[in-house]
Amino acid sequence: MLSITAVSLDLKYLGHMATSPAYHAPSGATSSTPRDEVDAILAAWALERPDVDTTPMQVLSRVSRLSRHLDLERRKAFAAHNLETWEFDVLSSLRREGEPYALTPGALMTELLVSSGTMTNRIDRLESAGLVTRTPSPNDRRAVVVSLTDEGKRRVDAALISLLECERAILAPLKNPEKEQLATLLRPLLLAFEQ
């Protein structure tokens, strides 16, 4: 749904978009193609800065806006199970390990890209909530292992089902081959940061 700002931008820049050399409509776009907020933003930039090629924004501004929408929808899915997003992330990392559903704090830190202090705080809070336990490592007495409790496992399993329902709804406008194509196209962009 377009906001009032986007609608006013649409009205102001509608004629300009078609004639501006700086605004390049996406390949395959027609006059009947639904317009989103990014189209309005690009049209405004084309008017104000016709000397700048804003083509990257066609993709990355949409990815950024989708990320925000996805974050909000994920929060709703997790809230139904009394979990925050970060709680789900820690619990799901443990759950994916398989039995005995345990990792060291260092392994969790690396997987979740957080600092040592942040990870310690998160483990403390999850332990207080009865979702994880800390036990001495069987291999190194100086180290500890963080393990999922039965309640933690139950909660993360239920939240996963809600998350997948939410994500299916978000992807519903795409056909299966389009979903596969999108995943394939996004992979190299992500790998550029992760490798």
Question: Could you explain the architecture of this structure?
Answer:
With 195 residues, the protein is mainly alpha-helical. 65% of the residues lie in helices and 6% in strands. It is built from eight helices and three strands, in the order ααααβααββαα. The protein has a three-stranded antiparallel beta sheet. A hairpin with a 7-residue loop joins strand 2 (132-136) and strand 3 (144-148). Helix 3 (55-79) crosses helix 7 and helix 5 (105-112) packs across helix 6. The longest helix has 25 residues, at 55-79. The two termini are 37 Å apart.
Give the topology, please.
Elements (H helix, E strand, L loop, with lengths): L3 H16 L17 H12 L6 H25 L5 H12 L5 E2 L1 H8 L3 H13 L3 E5 L7 E5 L1 H22 L4 H19 L1
Antiparallel strand pairs: 1-3, 2-3
Labels describing this entry:
8 helices; disordered N terminus; single chain; 195 residues; elongated; 3 strands; three-stranded antiparallel β-sheet; mainly alpha
Strand content of the residues, in percent? 5-15%
Record field, number of beta strands: 3
Largest sheet: 3 strands, antiparallel
Uncertain regions spanning at least 5 consecutive residues: 1-23
Number of distinct helices? 8
Intertermini distance: 37 Å
- Pairing-aware structural class of the strands and helices? mainly alpha
User: What is the succession of H and E elements?
Assistant: HHHHEHHEEHH
Which quaternary structure do these chains form? single chain
Apparent shape: elongated
Compute the CA-based radius of gyration.
22 Å
Which sequence of strands runs across the widest sheet?
1-3-2
Give the integer mean of the pLDDT values.
Answer: 86
Helical amount among residues, as a percent range? 55-70%
